[in-house]
Specification:
Helices cover 43% and strands 15% of the residues. The chain is α+β, with helices and mostly antiparallel strands.
Length: 155
């Protein structure tokens, strides 16, 4: 059995990069993981390259980097919403599907969730599905997540 070396990436940094990439339209914000160092390079169409200046020596690795996915790449956009609605609110499925045919869909969806007292369940579902999808993506790309401060408690 041949073992392949995994790329070690800080879990918190990857999650933050994923949120950054997913916060805009696809390709508006991007991030890539260095296959040699596991460091993440960030880029925004509005702000340009972001991050530490000492990462400049990794430029030769930039083309070989692994692009951090956008939530839509992992089916975590409207399809995730519709999966949740199908499971938790099947009578509202057509209404929610109609929301996502126009702008402002997430706002209308969250208003409906509040009226149905399902907002907290949605957040739990979204977090669970996002973590599972991101872990599966890491496995497919030879990435091992590491905790930079495993014993540190967040304030």
């Amino acid at each position: 059995m041949t073992s392949t070396k995994k790329i070690m990436v800080d879990r918190d940094e990857l999650e933050t990069a994923f949120e950054f990439v997913s916060s805009g339209a696809p390709y508006e914000n991007t991030a890539s993981i260095s296959v040699t160092t596991g460091k993440i390079r960030w880029h925004s169409m509005l702000m340009g390259d972001m991050g530490d200046d000492d990462d400049a020596d990794d430029d030769d690795d930039a083309e070989d980097g692994i692009a951090v996915p956008h939530k839509n790449d992992l089916d975590l956009g409207s399809r995730l919403v519709l999966r949740f609605v199908r499971q938790e609110m099947p009578r509202d499925y057509d209404t929610v599907a109609e929301f996502f045919r126009r702008r402002g869909a997430y706002g209308r969806f969250k208003d409906l969730l509040e009226r149905r007292h399902k907002l907290e369940r949605w957040y739990e579902f979204e977090e669970r599905e996002t973590q599972a999808a991101l872990l599966a993506w890491c496995e497919q790309n030879g990435i091992q997540l590491v905790d930079s401060q495993p014993d540190a408690k967040r304030a």
